[in-house]
Amino acid sequence: MEATLEYIAVGLLIILLILAAFSMMTTVTSTTETTYEEQLYTVAERVMDKLILTPGYPPDWGSNIAVSADNLQDIGLALYGSNTPYVVDPDKVMRLANLSTLPNPLLLNATRMAQLLNLQGYGFRLRIKPLLTINITPTSYYTWNNGNNNFKFVSSFDIYVENYYGLGVPNANITAMYVMVLVQTGASNANVTEKYVSTQTCLTDPVGKCHLDFSPVFSGVKGQQFTWLFPFLIVRAEWNGFVSVAGYGSTSRGTAPVDGYIIGNYVFVDKEIDVSKPINNPKKGKGSNTAGAVIFKDRLLEVIPEYQDLLNFTTVTWCRDANGNPLSNDQLCNAAGNVLPSAQQWYLIGYVNYVEPLSSHIFVFAQYRGNPIAIVISRIPNIDITYGGKQAMPANSVTLRRMITVYRYPLIVELTVWRNVEGFP
Question: Measured between alpha carbons, how far is residue 425 from residues 165, 226, 390, 418 in Å?
Answer without folding.
Answer: 18, 54, 5, 8
